[in-house]
Amino acid sequence: MTTPDDVKASVREKYAAIARSKEQGDGSSCCCSGDDELEVTMIGDDYDDVEGYVAEADMQLGCGVPTDLANIQPGDAVLDLGSGAGLDAFTARHIAGPDGRVVGVDMTPEMIKKARANAASLGFDNVEFFEGDIEDLPLEDEQFDVVISNCVLNLVPDKPTAFAEMYRVIAPGGHFCVSDIVVRGQLPDAVRRSAEMYAGCVGGAIEEDDYLELLEEAGFENVEVLRRKTIDVPDEALLKRASKEEVATFRDGGAIESITVRGQR
């Protein structure tokens, strides 16, 4: 049986491999291995026109642009969960400005190294990156105005604890805005595995209603989906692991979606 620790170790190694490949100048975003290796189609939105975009920090691993709808204000303290090489943290810093503070947390040492190097090259002294787990954040209570995340929380095995940690570190009156992957309808295991091989952020995705309910159970109010888009996984990708019958079952009312969600403490 796969344990939560096994899942986290697998995710950590996949993202470490991506960081290493980018360091070596490999433009691919394949985070698979062994016989299952294929080119993963990443599903992130286009950042080219986003102010504050830093190309060196773009690992092409997101599924949205959460800073677009996060209502970050100048001077805000912002936390980026699963910050990778710093893409959304640097975008948030552009909005929060020199009087703001941005902190990124990621569990992959290779990503933290890249993020810190990017921050140093940009001369940012109000952006910090810490290695740590989202379920056990190395941060004090109630210190952030805004928490953001981009296609990371769905990969966390213990979502209730992760959402509780989000709530703990947000100051009263603060809010979160995250982009993530959810599913709708029946998603057979074989279809889920095939979709995960096609779009690397699908692993761990749960039903949208369950996702929103967990956020409310953590204490958040006014939880709402601000943006959504369907992740189009072609049949030929699904049929690498799933049967025609399983794919047909999925197509009958099922979907994999990227949503951007906001809620308040």
From TrEMBL:
Record bears the keyword Transmembrane helix: no
Show where the Methyltransferase domain sits: 73-219
Coiled-coil regions listed: none
Q: Which reaction does it catalyse?
A: arsenic triglutathione + 3 [thioredoxin]-dithiol + 3 S-adenosyl-L-methionine = trimethylarsine + 3 [thioredoxin]-disulfide + 3 glutathione + 3 S-adenosyl-L-homocysteine + 3 H(+); arsenic triglutathione + [thioredoxin]-dithiol + S-adenosyl-L-methionine + 2 H2O = methylarsonous acid + [thioredoxin]-disulfide + 3 glutathione + S-adenosyl-L-homocysteine + H(+); arsenic triglutathione + 2 [thioredoxin]-dithiol + 2 S-adenosyl-L-methionine + H2O = dimethylarsinous acid + 2 [thioredoxin]-disulfide + 3 glutathione + 2 S-adenosyl-L-homocysteine + 2 H(+)
Could you confirm whether the keyword Coiled coil appears in this record?
no
Which top-level enzyme class is recorded in the Swiss-Prot or TrEMBL entry?
Answer: transferase
Pfam families in alphabetical order:
Methyltransf_31
Q: Which GO terms describe its biological process?
A: methylation
Q: Which UniProt keywords apply?
A: Methyltransferase, S-adenosyl-L-methionine, Transferase
Stated EC number for the protein is: 2.1.1.137
Q: Name one GO molecular function term.
A: arsenite methyltransferase activity
Enumerate the InterPro entries for this protein: Arsenite_MeTrfase-like, Methyltranfer_dom, SAM-dependent_MTases_sf
CDD domains listed in its UniProt record? AdoMet_MTases
Which NCBIfam families does the annotation name? PRK11873.1 (NF008823)
Q: Which family does it belong to?
A: Belongs to the methyltransferase superfamily. Arsenite methyltransferase family.
List the protein's name: Arsenite methyltransferase
